[in-house]
Amino acid sequence: MSHTTPDGITEYDPEEVQALLEQGRVLLVDVREPMEYAAERIAGALLYPLSTFDAAHLPPEGERAVVFQCAAGGRSLTAARLRKAAGQPAAHLAGGISEWKAQGLPTVRGGSRPA
């Protein structure tokens, strides 16, 4: 169940993000590094590493919410805070891809097959 942190960041759990992805209601942005993304990722996530991140280069929130994701939730929370500081709604996947996998949700490894 999603909740809002004291600094105004929405935290989604993996099941919520999966449902939003299936409904086309979220733009999932993976802020890990390219090697991490290439090794394993959530299907449909777009890569935008935190090391090169600029909130101004993301589209404004429209019909799809922008949700950040990383390995365990730290980098995605940082990206969400940067987006919030830029005046946009901010959200992230609590626990990152680690929690996603712990919940038994599928990932894509290397090539393009769900794991």
Describe the global form.
globular
- Rounded to the nearest angstrom, the distance between the terminal CA atoms is 25 Å
Largest sheet, spatial ordering of strands: 1-2-7
Supply the helix-strand structural class.
alpha/beta
The first-level CATH class is given as: Alpha Beta
| DSSP strand count | 9
CATH architecture: 3-Layer(aba) Sandwich
Rg result: 13 Å
What is the fourth-level CATH superfamily?
Rhodanese-like domain
Describe this structure in words.
With 115 residues, the protein is an alpha/beta fold. It has one domain (3-105): 3-Layer(aba) Sandwich (Oxidized Rhodanese, domain 1). The protein is 30% helix and 23% strand. The chain contains 4 helices and 9 strands, in the order E-E-H-E-H-E-E-E-H-E-H-E-E. The protein has helices at residues 14-22, 34-39, 74-85, 96-102, and strands spanning 3-4, 10-12, 26-30, 40-41, 46-47, 65-69, 91-93, 108-109, 113-114. The strands form 3 sheets. A 3-stranded mixed sheet has the order 1-2-7. Strand 1 (3-4) and strand 2 form a beta hairpin. The longest helix is centred in the last third of the chain and has 12 residues, at 74-85. The model has no long low-confidence stretch (mean pLDDT 92).
